[in-house]
Amino acid sequence: MQSWASALMILTMMMILTVYARIYDRCKLAQKLENEGLSGFMGYSIEDWLCMAHYESGFDTSLLSHNIDGSSEYGIFQLNSAWWCDNGITPTHNLCHMNCQDLRNYHIKDDILCAKKIVTFHSGMGAWDTWTNYCSGYDLSKWTNGCHMHLRPN
Q1: Where exactly are the structural domains of the chain?
Q2: Is residue 20 very low, low, confident or very high in pLDDT (cuts 50, 70, 90)?
Q3: Active-site residue set
């Protein structure tokens, strides 16, 4: 009986996450990132952020990935549980002082605030291997083409 109740609770939680999750449209995400002050932040463009988020999560706010070391990565920027948030399972530094599950909903302001902290206090966007491998040094103009934005210069 208890396993049935546990299964029902897990199913309910998965449905809630699905309701609150979002796969962003590229241009809507660009606007959201601009509104949250990422255009030119620490010398990085909206295109840098879009490129990184695309390769990290495909713009999916609900993405959860598990790593070989036992840590997990959460949300649109795939923030690691060993360093940035607390998942209640693995040891963490929790440098963004947040619950990892909060990174898996469509409200990405907390994700952005944590990402800003990472860029400011660590190795810039080089903290994301995907940015280093797929975005740094490339022409990123395609990421905002057709979005009709008023991007601030770097």
Answers
A1: 2-143
A2: low
A3: 56
Query: How far is it, in rounded angstroms, from Cα 17 to Cα 115?
Result: 21
- d(CA 100, CA 104) in angstroms, rounded, equals 8
Please name which of 88, 143, 86, 83 lies closest in space to residue 117, comparing C-alpha atoms.
83
CATH level 3 topology of 2-143: Lysozyme (1.10.530)
Q: Which two structure tokens, joined as six digits, stand for 29? A: 């995400």
CB 47 within 8 A of CB 143: yes
Give per-residue pLDDT as tens, 88-122. Answer: 999 999 999 999 999 999 999 999 999 999 999 88
Residue 98 is given by DSSP the state: S
DSSP 65: E
C-alpha to C-alpha distance for 68 and 65, rounded to whole angstroms? 10
